[in-house]
Design a protein that fits this description.
By secondary structure, the protein is an alpha/beta fold. The protein has two domains: 346 residues, Glycosidases (TIM Barrel); 75 residues, Golgi alpha-mannosidase II (Immunoglobulin-like), CATH 2.60.40.1180. The protein is 30% helix and 16% strand. The protein has 17 helices and 20 strands. It has an eight-stranded parallel sheet with strand order 11-10-9-5-2-1-13-12. A five-stranded antiparallel sheet has the order 14-15-16-20-18. A three-stranded antiparallel sheet has the order 6-8-7, with no helix packed on it. Strand 14 and strand 15 form a beta hairpin. It starts with a helix and ends with a strand. It binds alpha-D-glucopyranose and calcium ion. Calcium ion binds next to loops.
Length: 559
């Protein structure tokens, strides 16, 4: 296997709306990101993944794009973007753009034309169908609730939207659509951007028979994304995209691929497949979904044995054949320290570090989501009015107001646990007004714990989570075994510890984590300490076989 720079890189995701406001309108912006580039450089990351900054009516916070080649005015101008790119490059950081091409906004020029008339030249840019016996063309459900089809009164047909009504799906079977997208991608790459994170890219090819979804249940808030996932021509289109665009540049690409299996992943991200470099698989990200058919709306705690089994399956399944991405967090998921760790003050610091070690010593390209490096936690707003995410608001309306399946209090508890807004509260920079994010009114309230958890405090404290992430990032550069070693899970059935071994040439890496607040006696450290080195730990001393609450340690062993 030929080594690639993006295998050794560390990616940091910026969610622009919530990162740093520079003009006090309460909305993060590009100039704010520019101000914070030195902070990111110091953390030791290599690539910034920028969530969408394109022109958008903002129905889904920028994942509904009305012009792919214009900047959202609230984020700044194209000149600001050019400065960001230049400044990032000057600091040796790369910039990866979000590419949202499964759908556009309904306010995109193409869709505005498309909906005008059946014979409009843009009609076939989208997926239009006649009513079937006066009803929707099939039973597919939108990921944000309700049918995935919207009726258009003017032309008397339905259009498909796997997400909100304001996100009509593009028709990838139309070669003109593909040509436009490839041209737009090339335009960005020629401008100098360093790659793409591709939004729900495995949904782009729909089965033209549009079969009904056997598992659909609108009451259960289920989505029919799986019906569109890994469709008949998806690999053909990605190979074409690779040939026409991606292969001409030395860039990083990652596909967001809900419902992907190991076998499919090898096709998308296989070393020989000429499609993408890596993908985001979803299995561990949906591990605590509802068991009562309410999708992600639950307050379940993930089962550690299952979590280990999933992550290990991906480590082993792709080894030598394809490349993993490593992530706990993104803008769609609750905060990991609250989810798999412990955000009580006593264990917050140690459990956040333990989670970092557990994931970042695996094989794959690591992704850090803004705020993860200081252990930002879930938020618990008392009022539904304080939430902004359309997915959360739709689910509340559906499950509490309309179906009355959940009480307000039950749903609020689930929202506190699972809402996407957990990840989207403003970045906590300091203990000043609005956590230093803005001097105006933030678009989404800040998490009230910003006086305890913030960047300024972390930078002053040598044992902060921030410096732990920084150290891990340095270790990854120093020891090829972390990037390239193979993987073996130890003690798979243990429900309290996560232990694995990596091997590379004549070295071994042993990663040991206690996922509980108990002190455990183990026999994992039955090796000769003389020939080993403790690379990192969240306790200053080492009690050998005894693991203290949330203790995590990583040894390098020379055979
Ligand atoms: C992806 C994005 C999510 C968005 C959806 C529709 O899953 O990560 O934020 O809502 O696609 O674009
Ligand atoms: Ca602003």
């Amino acid at each position: 296997m030929e080594k690639k720079w993006w295998q050794e890189a560390i990616v940091y995701q910026v969610y622009p709306r919530s990162f740093q406001d520079s003009n006090d309108d309460g909305i993060g912006d590009i100039r704010g990101i520019i101000q914070r580039l030195p902070y990111l450089k110091t953390l030791g990351i290599d690539v910034i993944w920028l969530s969408p900054i394109y022109q958008s009516p903002n129905d889904d916070n920028g994942y509904d794009i009305s012009d792919y080649q214009a900047i959202q005015p609230e984020y700044g101008t194209m000149a600001d973007f050019n400065t960001l790119l230049k400044e990032a490059h000057r600091l040796g950081l790369k910039l990866m753009m979000d590419l949202v091409v499964n759908h556009t906004s309904d306010e995109h020029f193409w869709f505005k034309e498309s909906r005008k008339a059946k014979d409009n030249p843009y009609r076939d840019y989208y997926i239009w169908k006649d009513a079937k016996n006066g009803e929707v063309p099939n039973n597919w459900a939108s990921d944000f609730g309700g049918s995935a089809w919207a009726w258009d009164a003017v032309t008397q047909q339905y259009y498909l939207h796997l997400f909100s009504k304001k996100q009509p799906d593009l028709n990838w079977d139309n070669p003109k659509v593909r040509a436009e997208i490839y041209q737009m991608m090339t335009w960005w790459l020629e401008k100098g951007v360093d790659g793409f994170r591709m939004d729900v890219i495995n949904l782009i090819s729909k089965d033209q028979k549009f079969p009904n979804d056997p598992n659909v249940n609108y009451q259960n808030h289920s989505s029919s994304m799986e019906m569109a996932a890994n469709g008949p021509k998806v690999h053909h289109y990605l190979k074409e995209m690779n040939e026409k665009v991606l292969s001409k540049f030395d860039i990083i690409t990652v596909g967001e691929t809900p419902g992907v299996t190991i076998e499919e992943a090898k096709l998308y991200a296989g070393f020989e497949s000429n499609e993408l470099q890596m993908i985001f698989q979803f299995e561990h990200a949906v591990i605590d979904d509802s068991t009562e058919g309410l999708g992600k709306w639950s307050n379940r705690r993930a089962d550690l044995v299952e979590l280990k089994q999933i992550l290990s399956k991906w480590q082993i399944g792709l080894h030598n054949e394809a490349w993993n991405s490593l992530y706990w967090n993104n803008h769609d998921r609750p905060r990991v320290v609250s989810r798999f760790g412990n955000d009580n003050e006593e264990y917050h610091n140690r459990s956040a570090k333990m989670l970092a070690s557990t994931l970042h010593f695996m094989q794959g390209t690591p992704y850090i989501f803004q705020g993860e490096e200081i252990g930002m936690t879930n938020v618990a707003f008392d009022n539904i009015e304080d939430y902004q995410d359309l997915d959360t608001l739709n689910a509340y309306q559906d499950l509490v107001v309309e179906q009355k399946r959940l009480t307000h209090d039950e749903m609020l508890e689930y929202i506190h646990h699972s809402s996407r807004d957990n990840a989207r509260t403003p970045m906590q920079w300091n203990n000043q007004q609005n956590a230093g994010f803005t001097n105006g009114r933030p678009w989404l309230e800040v998490n009230p714990n910003y006086d305890k958890i913030n960047v300024e405090k972390a930078l002053f404290n040598p044992t902060s989570i921030y410096y732990y992430y920084q150290k891990i990032n340095q270790l990854r550069k120093e020891y090829p075994i972390i990037v390239y070693g193979d993987y073996e899970l130890i003690d798979p059935d243990n429900s309290k510890t996560f232990v694995y071994r990596r091997k590379f040439n004549n070295q071994q890496l042993l990663v040991i984590s206690n996922f509980t607040e108990e002190t455990l006696e183990t026999d994992y450290c039955n090796f000769d300490f003389e020939s080993s080195k403790r690379l990192i730990s969240n306790y200053s001393d080492d009690l050998g076989k005894t693991l203290r609450p949330y203790e995590s340690k990583v040894y390098l062993i020379n055979d």
